[in-house]
Design goal:
By secondary structure, the protein is mostly beta strands. It folds into two domains: 1-30; 34-253, Porin, CATH 2.40.160. The protein has two helices and eleven strands; from the N terminus they run αββαβββββββββ. The chain has helices at residues 3-28, 69-72, and strands spanning 37-58, 64-68, 73-86, 91-104, 116-131, 138-163, 166-193, 198-211, 213-222, 228-233, 240-253. It has an eight-stranded antiparallel beta barrel with strand order 1-3-4-5-6-7-8-11. A hairpin with a 4-residue loop joins strand 7 (166-193) and strand 8. The relative contact order is 0.19.
Amino acid sequence: MSRRLCWALAGAVALGSAVAGAQEVQTSTPKFSDPTGLELTIGLGFQGGAGYVYKNGERLDGTRGDVKLSDGAVGGLPLLVELGYRLSPKWFVGAYGQVSYILTSENPLSCPEGFDCNAMQFRFGPQVQYHFSPEASFDPFVGVGFGMAILNVKNSGVLPVATPAGTLNSDFEVDSTTRGPEFINVTVGGKWRLGESFSFGPYLTAGYATYTARAGTTTVSIPAPVNVTTESPLTYADDGPNLSLMLGFRLTLNP
């Protein structure tokens, strides 16, 4: 075998080794780069819950007692917003905010038949997340947070009222704000990477809160021949512990 042929074979072997090494490095390279920096998430879903709005309080049927979440609502439609910073590919620190349109239902205790009932819930606070596979096409994560929960309710309708002129159908309006700490919320979910900057996936959040303060007014307008309108503050009610569940999908932007 000539010396030129030996050098040619050696060069071919070296070139083949280099190509194989490059292919091996390329194969081991993650499909996506590790996300860091500013991160924005928007989520939509459905909300349910169990527990109480308040205990031992005045109800619209004229009695005192408990009002459960299920007494006046069948669920809610939450809009979630998260804003924060990916300190590293696996750790996110930021804040969450959520507004939920409550799907009210008729109930003699809180929303009698014929009443117009509207309710909105607000949640907000700090949160931290841990991401298990930030470089993969699907990234499962878990998040923990705490904060405040606020429930705004406005119910209006007609109820009979005993007056010196007899029982008259009078206009009732109850406008209340109930708030309290959300001691903890836990979120589990996952994200499919749609590109270097976008990801999308499901989430499930469970939160435990207690409504500790209730403020607002009850307005009663009695028609002729009485023609009197009275406005009085809501009476005292005991705390209302409750559990909320949110299930939905999230879209995340990591520019």
